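Sample intake sheet
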Amino acid sequence: MYIGIDVGTSGIKAILVDDAQTVLAAKTEKLTVSRPHDRWSEQNPEDWWTATGKALDALRDEHPREMAAVKGIGLSGQQHGAVLLDAEGRVLRPCILWNDTRSTAECTLFTERLPEIDTITGNLAMPGFTAPKLLWVRKHEPEIFARTAKVLLPKAWLRYRMTGEMIEDMSDASGSLWLDVGHRKWSEAALEATYLTPEHMPRLCEGSDAAGRLKPELAQRWGMDTPPILAGSAGDNAAGAIGLGATHPGDAFVSLGTSGVVWNTTGSFRHATQSAIHSFCHALPNTWHQMGVTLSAAASLAWWSRVTGTTETDLLAELPEIPNEPSPVTFMPYLSGERTPHNDADIRGAFLHLSQDTTRAIMTQSILEGVAYSFRDALDGLTAAGSGFREADVIGGGSRSKLWSTILASVMDVTLHRLDHGEQGGAFGAARLARLAVTAEDPSLVCLAPKRIAEIKPDPTLRDAYARGLTRYRALYPALKPIPA
């Protein structure tokens, strides 16, 4: 038996998986995000711990025999968050999350202090990443910075609470901007650029390595016969890739989740930052990946649902199964800024070309299309970086909509495959990594791809129409730049 725990932004999910890789049970505990100021996004790490305890307590109560047999635990973590600890391991301030954009000025400073950032880290400096957050803390909270002894990413902090050890895997560390991604080690130059040293960092390991053992008192609390091994584990996207079996060069997927990801596994480190493409270590040794990221994918539809007071299901029910033509309205999905291809934390979303004839359904369709255009931007960035593809698996909550999947395939001009049990996400990949850490099996025998259950090809008529819509979408981006007060 193995447990996978996903440390998400909106909740903690824990699943129980048997040796046949069947998910026997799943429990989710919700989390909230604090936004005390514009552009801020924070969480209290203790809330992650409380939620994890409740989820595992529930699994223990409902499945005591299976929990007693757990051998390994894997973690999937929201990336880029900064958990600051003092010399005694105490949290100094709330965690600054991945979607916090307060450190835009610090990105410029970081790049000035480390001009070779892209060749070392494989990425541009963006406010979502961890390193600029520490420069912000140094400037605005100098007393906190002076007391900081360790900086942990969210799942590394959860591991610390579970094992007492400070360890991080390569995939999650890649999103810090402190990792030498090609050589899979901390970069002293990158750390020095943020006035830190390697002593501020946890020990590194591969995601499939054994990396600590659960404290005996916690094993007793959760009814486990022997304290399980914890895997090195993975950042959320890499964990999702492990769950999908996207572990070989050329394996590609599109994730239509809260944020959007266009992913391609690579067999070597290839930095290509010209379109804000990310180049990270994968969770398995000697494996890397490139990805484009759009910050408000399914989050855009969720925002529209809140604004209209209508459920997402009801909003989609107002639309035809397949659109006859593109919406006359253009939606720009930059509600939280954008990464690929713009690396622009200041840009914001908009509806354009509204008229007296505009209906809610027309605006809903424009949201689906605007998000799809942002995915095409990400795919074109990957293609320029040598990681383009003609077909891919599609996952994420938005992929359950046949309409949205068809729009996405037509805009991207790729064939998409929907999967059987493709929605298990990072927790399932984490459970697979737990198994690898315990058994040392060949990953190719464990990280199998789910069965493809549907093929979604680009609609020829829509593809041509959306090509014109994409041109308009891209032309509108400069008009959304903030106007000086």
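Comment: The first helix runs from residue 45 to 62. The CA atoms of residues 135 and 194 lie 6 Å apart.
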